[in-house]
Amino acid sequence: MNNINLQIKFIDLIKYFADKNILINSSLSENELISGISSLENANNKQISFFEDTKLVNFLKKTDAKACFIKNEFINLLPKTCLPIIVDNPYLCFAYATNYFYPKRISNAKVSQNCSIHKNVSIDDNIEIGNYVTISENCKISKNVIIENNVFIDNDVSIGENTFIGNNCVISNSIIGKNCLIKAGTIIGGSGFGFTVNEKISIEHIGNVIIGDNVKIGSNCTIDRASIDSTIIEDNVRLDNLIQIAHGVKISMNSIIAAQVGIAGSTIIGSNCIIGGQAGIAGHLKIGNNVKIAAKSGVTKDIKDNMTIAGFPAINIKEWKKNMIKLNNI
Amino acid sequence: MNNINLQIKFIDLIKYFADKNILINSSLSENELISGISSLENANNKQISFFEDTKLVNFLKKTDAKACFIKNEFINLLPKTCLPIIVDNPYLCFAYATNYFYPKRISNAKVSQNCSIHKNVSIDDNIEIGNYVTISENCKISKNVIIENNVFIDNDVSIGENTFIGNNCVISNSIIGKNCLIKAGTIIGGSGFGFTVNEKISIEHIGNVIIGDNVKIGSNCTIDRASIDSTIIEDNVRLDNLIQIAHGVKISMNSIIAAQVGIAGSTIIGSNCIIGGQAGIAGHLKIGNNVKIAAKSGVTKDIKDNMTIAGFPAINIKEWKKNMIKLNNI
Amino acid sequence: MNNINLQIKFIDLIKYFADKNILINSSLSENELISGISSLENANNKQISFFEDTKLVNFLKKTDAKACFIKNEFINLLPKTCLPIIVDNPYLCFAYATNYFYPKRISNAKVSQNCSIHKNVSIDDNIEIGNYVTISENCKISKNVIIENNVFIDNDVSIGENTFIGNNCVISNSIIGKNCLIKAGTIIGGSGFGFTVNEKISIEHIGNVIIGDNVKIGSNCTIDRASIDSTIIEDNVRLDNLIQIAHGVKISMNSIIAAQVGIAGSTIIGSNCIIGGQAGIAGHLKIGNNVKIAAKSGVTKDIKDNMTIAGFPAINIKEWKKNMIKLNNI
Question: Residue C327 is nearest to which of A94, A101, A327, comparing CB atoms?
Answer without folding.
Answer: A327
